[in-house]
Amino acid sequence: MTRTEMLREIAGRIDRLRLGHPVRIAVDGRTASGKTTLADELAARLAGQGRSVIRTSVDGFHRPRAVRYARGRHSPEGYYHDARDLPAIVALLLAPLGPGGDRRFRTASFDLEADAPVAQEPQVAPEDAILIVDGTFLQRPELRGHWDATLFVRTSAETAEARGLGRDADRLGGEAAARDLYAARYRPAYALYEGLCEPEASSDAIIDNDDLAAPRLVLRPGGRLVDGANDLPPASLIDS
Any idea what DSSP says for residue 84? Predict the structure, then answer.
């Protein structure tokens, strides 16, 4: 399957979801798996099909640096438990766009670079809008029930780390410092998440993203993107 075919298949299924409120899509996966790229690609394709798309990341909902690093800069438990303000994600973004919500939403609560809160004016989403959010740990219990469909971007730890080092080395203080953070903080934090939440098992679709040009798509039987996409035939691309 080419990347274009994969994007067309997923976007088509998302496009056909009709829920009576904005469709809330999570793009989950380990650090540097390719979540942001996939979310951007899907958002552009759906917008090109005439849909109203809200595109954001959980990175807009960080907690203050003193809280994030209270357990230590290299702590995986700190990354998993303390990095993001989960109540704010729900209250400001996900709940307003869900069933019974007023559709008045905000896409961020915190400026990571300035290490300071931001006060956003709320926007009002159309009823048929599509929200696409990328980030790590999106299927934690605090968030899981607020997604209408979840995409899981699967990569090997080695592939993700190689991509992440190329992307983050300068920002994290050089390749050696970045490598230490991936080994001590990011990789074990994902292992903690995987053990607690089993994110692949509950995702509606898995995109095997080690080969960016030829990803492998797995649609979960019984998932929202198979049974909930109106006017679509049974999934032809379910892999096992």
Answer: B
Q: What is the rounded CA–CA span in Å between residue 88 and residue 68? A: 15
**Domains of the chain, CATH where assigned:** 3-59+127-227 (3.40.50.300)
**pLDDT tens for each residue of 111-120:** 999 999 999 9
Cα R_g (the chain), whole angstroms: 18
One-letter amino acid at 131 equals L
Q: Does residue 106 sit in helix, strand or coil? A: coil
Pairing of strands 23-29, 149-154: parallel
Angle in degrees, CA 207, 194, 106, rounded to 5: 70
pTM of the model: 0.92
DSSP H helices, the chain, are 3-15, 35-48, 65-68, 76-82, 86-88, 95-97, 141-144, 157-168, 175-181, 187-197, 199-202, 224-227
Q: For residue range 75-129, list pLDDT tens digits in order.
A: 999 999 999 999 999 999 999 999 999 999 999 999 999 999 999 999 999 999 9
Report the distance separating Cα 110 and Cα 120, nearest Å. 10
Rounded Cα gap, residues 136 and 85, in angstroms: 13
Amino acid identity of residue 161, one-letter, is: E
Distance CA 68, CA 73 (A): 8
Q: Which two tokens stand for residue 101?
A: 């919500």
**Whether the Cβ atoms of residue 11 and residue 138 lie closer than 8 Å to each other:** no
Can you tell me the distance from the alpha carbon of 37 to that of 156, in angstroms, rounded to the nearest whole number? Answer: 17
Amino acid (1-letter code) at residue 171: R
Report helix angle 187-197 to 157-168, nearest 10. 140
The encoded tokens of residue 226 equal: 């198979």
